[in-house]
Design brief:
By secondary structure, the chain is mostly beta strands. 9% of the residues lie in helices and 37% in strands. A hairpin with a 2-residue loop joins strand 7 and strand 8.
């Protein structure tokens, strides 16, 4: 599906009252969600997501255990592929036990061939890495736990 068609679909969702639209073309599914409300990142702007066709809902299993009160969870800022390293074969940005500083690069999210580096909003120590390298992650999914 070409970029112009995706842009038109996003505009359509933004101008309409629908909250979700999924279109499949040539084996690629584009899902556009409209998230309205005060916590929405762009106040009603639609979000687009491309994925492989899904035949049945996935069993996500039980939710992860609640984090201790002093821990901080770093979540994915968008959907996409989670990458721990800047390139294949390179060492990861962070490992469990690493002490990180505010502004330090933590991981990359790849969405539609766009690579977005995520930096630490606060310093701390990496306690757990909750997503696997190369894993599809969703907006808001926990990917790192800091102490």
């Amino acid at each position: 599906m070409d970029l112009e068609k995706i842009k038109k679909l996003i505009e359509f969702v933004g101008a309409s009252r629908i909250s979700e639209l999924a279109v499949t073309e040539d084996g690629v599914t584009v899902r556009i969600l409209r998230e309205d409300g005060p916590a929405a990142p762009s106040q009603g702007a639609p979000l687009a997501q491309a994925s492989e066709p899904v035949s049945a809902p996935e069993d996500t299993g039980p939710p992860p255990p609640a984090a201790p009160a002093k821990s901080r969870i770093v979540t994915a800022p968008s959907f996409g592929l989670f990458h721990r390293a800047p390139s294949p074969g390179a060492p990861p940005f962070v490992d469990v036990g690493d002490q990180i500083a505010e502004g330090q690069e933590l991981f990359i999210i790849e969405a539609m061939k766009v690579f977005s580096t995520v930096k630490a909003e606060r310093g701390g120590r990496v306690v757990r890495i909750l997503a696997d390298d190369g894993e599809d992650v969703e907006l808001g999914q926990p990917v790192l736990e800091l102490e």
